[in-house]
Amino acid sequence: MQLAIYAISIFFLIARFKSVVRPAMRDPFLWALMAIVVTSFSWSDFPYDSRKYGLTALLTTLFGVYLASRYSLKEQLRIVAWAVGIAAVFSLFYSLALRGAGVEQGLHPGAWRGPLMHKNMFARLMVVSALPPLLVAMNARRYRYVWWAVFGLTVVLILLSTSKTALVILITLMILVPLYKALRWSDNLAIPFFITIILVGGSIATWTVGNWENFLFSLGRDPTLSGRTYIWDAVMEKIWERPWLGYGFEAFWIEGGESSYVWRAVRYKVYQAHNGFLNLGVEIGLLGLLFFGLSILFAYIRAINWARFGKTSESLWPLIYVTFLPMYNYTESTIVEQNSIYWVLFVAITLSLKRVPMANTRSESESLRKEMAGRTSIESLP
User: Which element (helix H / strand E) includes 251?
Assistant: First the structure.
């Protein structure tokens, strides 16, 4: 099924090649990153695996390119909202019908994991599943109650997964939605407002750092984040042994490779760094990490402008997603994954974001909003 999807995507990319070139060129850092991923087999400890997984990651990226070239951001959001809504409803019935498979029985008894392998993977998917229905529901004229119901279902599933990380990130993103909306205010209101937010946020961050252990214990976690900090220390030691290009894409964690040092250090086997940035650094080096950082930085800047001059809640989708991705990669790894919805969504969003010129006056801001509304209505035309 995956090969069929990729084959159809490539067919449509070739058939509509002229309309693909412009969006594909919007993020050169993304392609520099993919070049390292695809060629990393040449220095990998396991060249066959790095070649195979690198090509699959490229195909996953091309599927994101197809979405960016064919659908506007508004259309992408609605497509994703329907898809994740179906996934959430299916996960509910799956877990109720097959409790032995959909509910954890061992280390986390009673925690829901749906059709996925682990409750944290399920919770991460439900966080992404909550955001599109929420944004669509805010402006929907049709099926509004359906979207709110889907959003409520995803929140319930996150609670049933017992994942504190997913719950905290979801609450944070929900708080950010009205704050990001404030970007549309005139500069006379926006600047003092965001200065206040920065001061309040800085105060909260200062308190959290000073009471970090108590804060984690209140969430039922230990200060090592379930042993993750030990993994991070061991992985960083291995990164400095091959700092620039790493050990090869998807090659570090293969048994018989350099991951054995990490396993000895933490005294159990792990198959990722539980930190997306460290995982990327150990696989394709600091150079690959640099290109990803530049890619997401430029996507974030353009997403801010897109949100600022948009009129609806749906225009906040790029900014919300590029905020979600780094946040979740603090304790998990969702960067440059093959067959991954998280990577597909990032590619589609970053290649869909056009450069929005800065407006100096309120009248210019209004004209830009009108122009963006016009772009949204014609972007999907061939």
Answer: none
DSSP 8-state secondary structure symbol assigned to residue 103: B
Where are the extended beta strands (E) located within the chain?
none
Q: Is the pLDDT of residue 219 over 80?
A: no
d(Cα 86, Cα 370) in Å, to the nearest integer?
33
Q: The dihedral of CA 169, 175, 178, 184: what is its sign?
A: negative
Report the greatest alpha carbon distance in the chain: 63
Interhelix angle 28-39/276-309, nearest 10 degrees: 160
From the CB of residue 293, how many other CB atoms can be counted at a distance below 10 Å? Answer: 16
CA dist list (Å): 71 to 22, 269, 307: 14, 42, 18
Contact of 9 with 66, CB cutoff 8 Å? yes
As a whole number of angstroms, the distance between CA 63 and CA 4 comes to 12
- Alpha-carbon gap, residue 10 to 83, rounded angstroms: 21
How many residues in total does the chain contain?
382
The CB-side HSE value for 308 (13 A sphere, CA atoms) comes to 22
Question: b/e map of 21-36 (b: 16 or more CB within 10 Å)?
Answer: eebbebbebbebbbeb
The Cα 259–Cα 308 span in angstroms is 44
- DSSP letters along 25-69, please? TT-HHHHHHHHHHHHGGGT-SSHHHHHHHHHHHHHHHHHHHHHHH
Task: Please write the tens of the pLDDT for every residue from 101-159.
Answer: 899 887 788 899 999 988 989 999 999 999 999 999 988 888 889 999 999 999 999 99
* pTM for the whole structure: 0.86
CB 352 within 8 A of CB 318: yes
Pairwise CA distance, residues 154 & 89, whole Å: 9
Closest by CA position to 295, among listed 37, 14, 49, 11: 37
Q: Which of 125, 195, 207 lies closest to 158, judged by CA?
A: 125
> In the Cβ-directed half-sphere of 113, how many Cα atoms lie within 13 Å?
17
Q: Name the DSSP letter for residue 361.
A: S
Distance separating alpha carbons of residues 163 and 121, to the nearest angstrom: 10
The position carrying tokens 């993994």 is 231
Structure-model confidence comparison of residues 359 and 349, the more confident one: 349
Instruction: List CB contacts of 126: < 8 A, sequence separation 6 or more.
Output: 88, 91, 154, 157, 158, 161, 166
